[in-house]
Design brief:
The structure holds 2 protein chains of 2 kinds. Chain A has helices at 2-20, 25-47, 50-54, 84-103, 107-124, 131-145, 154-157, 168-196, 200-203, 207-212, 229-249, 253-274, 277-285, 293-302. By secondary structure, chain A is an all-alpha fold. The chains are: A mainly alpha, B alpha+beta.
Chain lengths: 311, 182
């Protein structure tokens, strides 16, 4: 009984440390910069077709935005505008918020505004959303929780960050923001890995061939890989292994580096071969949350990043 | 520096409140992607408004249970002038991906087609009128889904060209009025 009680106490203490112990602001700061940049690029590219995506001239009338969703998924409130001029103004506002977020100006406020607009545009046309959009929602959320501009930001560059330790609430939220970022990535990989295990093509090792042989998906012809079926099977099983075991191996110090490197290879391949560049970059940006802070600091210093951005 | 008891208890209270939020949030993002499960059926109601509002309600199914085959729509436009003609121009949606290095638009149109195509009423009510607007004078479209399967890896070597490998299957054609479903 005592051993059981002790185990509960240990688990409780470990959870408390995990979610509430202070963390360096550098990880979330660098993540904010990289993810912000990717989100800014993603929405800038989409801006070319904003009328098609988000006005009644395009794909979906505003009156249908909610109706196309199965009742189970309908949000209790929506805030997208129907007027095209207002939509355009919101889009410009969103891009400005993303630019501020990337640079590290108005930190949490910029993240709140960005999340507000991000959800708004998803609500307006859910049909055209794909992986990178839905994952980005979780990442914006982490940036809303944490004081994301305490390091690696314009604010830090201009010496506007107060040197004192944040108050309790902010200190806890900084840690929770970082931890949820890490946990969301684990949950996404685990689910997609387990979902893949339902599919025969993943079991028999041919799923990667179904992608490589599909000209609608591929950026260039890699069908010559059919000459190496064992390689195709290996790539399929490695993908499965990576996604199913990421959530475990990334927390073990000895395997973290390898699983992250495998992830970089996987997403690099997806980005280059299938052209899912934004999806890959969004996913990879979250890897920053798993990097050792001292290592990250040393790397950035070696690239000539000024000390005041790293403290 | 010693913390006063009042400050200590306010910190503890703060941790309790934040812990409840963490448990609630993580339960939502863990349970809702599998909402058809027993847990999902029993507990979804607790998290649904929060998750739907924040769009945390997603399932995570990238290329699962298996990569989808190449799929697009082919259609002919019926106008009052050509109603009696046998041969009409055939259009494709989405158009082939022309910009290989920025395929964001293409991927989104594919996503949109699949999303609306998963519900016949939405498809007819919203997608067909959009297509009709692209062809002034259209009164109806005759449309079919085209699926292009690739051969198994063992048989792929029989083909000389990448594009020749595709095996085309036409699903039954259907006539959609531009005025929407009756």
């Amino acid at each position: 009984m005592n051993a059981m009680k002790q185990m509960f106490v240990d688990v409780f203490k470990a959870a408390e440390k995990f979610f509430f112990a202070p963390v360096s602001p550098l990880s979330i700061g660098v993540f904010r910069f990289v993810f912000g940049l990717v989100a800014f690029a993603m929405y800038s590219v989409r801006f070319v077709n904003w009328r098609f995506y988000y006005t009644d001239e395009g794909f979906l009338p505003a009156t249908a935005s909610l109706e196309i969703l199965p009742e189970f998924f309908r949000p209790p409130i929506t805030w997208y505008p129907a007027d095209p001029t207002l939509t355009l103004l919101c889009y410009i506002g969103f891009l400005i918020a993303l630019a501020c977020l990337t640079l590290g100006i108005f930190g949490r406020v910029a993240a709140i505004v960005a999340l507000f607009f991000h959800i708004m545009f998803l609500q307006r046309n859910y049909a055209i959303g794909y992986g990178s959009d839905f994952i980005a929602t979780f990442f914006f959320f982490s940036l809303v929780l944490a004081q994301n501009d305490r390091a690696f930001s314009l604010r830090a560059w201009l010496d506007r960050v107060k040197p004192e330790v944040p108050d309790s609430l902010n200190q806890y939220l900084n840690t929770i923001g970082l931890r949820l970022l890490q946990l969301h990535l684990c949950i996404i990989y685990s689910y997609t890995g387990l979902e893949k295990m339902k599919g025969t093509s993943w079991w028999e090792g041919t799923a990667v061939w179904s992608v490589i042989g599909n000209p609608q998906l591929m950026i260039f012809d890699a069908s010559w890989l059919q000459m190496f079926p064992v390689l195709i099977a290996l790539m399929t099983f490695m993908t499965l292994f990576f996604e199913v075991y990421f959530a475990v191996l990334v927390w073990i110090k000895g395997t973290r580096k390898w699983i992250l490197m495998l992830g970089v290879a996987l997403h690099g391949g997806i980005g280059v071969m299938i052209g899912l560049m934004f999806f890959s970059l969004v996913m990879l940006s979250a890897y920053i949350a798993f990097l050792d802070v001292d290592w990250l600091k040393a790397r950035l210093q070696s690239w000539g990043v000024p000390q005041k951005l790293l403290t | 520096m010693k913390t006063s008891p009042a400050k200590q208890s306010s910190r503890t209270l703060l941790k309790i409140v934040l812990s409840l939020f963490i448990v609630f949030h993580l339960s939502a993002v863990l349970i809702l992607p599998n909402s058809s499960s027993l847990m999902g059926r029993r507990l979804s109601w607790l998290f649904l408004d929060y998750a739907n509002l924040m769009i945390f309600n997603r399932t995570w199914q990238f290329f699962s249970p298996g990569p989808m085959p190449n799929m697009y729509l082919e259609y002919e436009v019926e106008t009052e002038d050509n109603a009696l003609e046998d041969v009409r121009e055939t259009y494709q949606w989405p158009k082939s991906n022309v910009n290989r290095f920025n395929n964001d638009f293409f991927l989104r149109t594919v996503a949109g087609m699949r999303f609306l195509g998963s519900n016949e009423v939405n498809f007819h009510k919203y997608f067909i009128p959009y297509l009709c607007r692209q062809h002034p004078g259209a009164v109806a479209v005759n449309m079919r889904s085209v699926v292009e399967q690739i051969p198994s890896i063992e048989r792929a070597g029989e083909y000389e060209d990448f594009l020749d490998m595709q095996q085309r299957f036409d699903l039954p054609s259907q006539r959609y009025s531009c005025e929407g479903p009756e």
